[in-house]
From TrEMBL:
Family: Belongs to the tRNA methyltransferase O family.
Domain of life: Bacteria
UniProt gene name: tsaA
Keyword S-adenosyl-L-methionine carried by entry: yes
Species name: Kribbella sindirgiensis
Protein name per the record: tRNA (N6-threonylcarbamoyladenosine(37)-N6)-methyltransferase TrmO
Length: 136
């Protein structure tokens, strides 16, 4: 099997429109943003609440899928490194991982902090951040 089909479950609404505007990581000054979910996943979203820490899995739809090596953090002084050892959005399968805190839930709209994804970025999944084993 060499092809998968992902289902988009939501989209990012953010003030970030261009890659040059986005911080490299969410904790480096990313703005709060909305994630707007498709009505078909309403039940899956039912228990997400303000205060939750979650991992958003996005599809970097504007990434270059042909890139296999990058200079980490765009620093030309650093040697080229295979993308599987970096968080570069340019990669063969451009999945993004974003650890965010849920600030508010308004129906199918979820306000989150520290999201460096661009406006319109598709969201393909949401997973809770796991705490200690005893709390799971």
């Amino acid at each position: 099997m060499d092809e998968l089909v992902l289902r988009v479950v939501g989209w990012v609404e953010s003030e970030l429109r261009e890659r040059a505007e986005a911080p490299r990581q969410g904790d480096e000054g990313a703005p709060d943003a909305w994630v707007v979910f498709d009505g078909s996943v309403r039940d899956a979203l039912a228990d997400v609440a303000a205060g939750d820490e979650v991992i958003l899995v996005s599809w970097f739809d504007r990434a270059d899928r042909g890139v296999q090596k990058v200079h980490p953090r765009g620093d030309q002084a650093r040697p080229p490194t295979g993308v599987f050892s970096t968080r570069s959005p340019d990669r063969p399968n451009p999945l993004g991982l974003h650890r965010v805190t849920v600030l508010a839930v308004d129906g199918l709209r979820v306000r989150v902090s520290n999201l460096e994804a661009l406006d319109g970025t598709p969201i393909v999944d949401v997973k809770p951040v796991l705490g200690d084993v005893a709390d799971r």
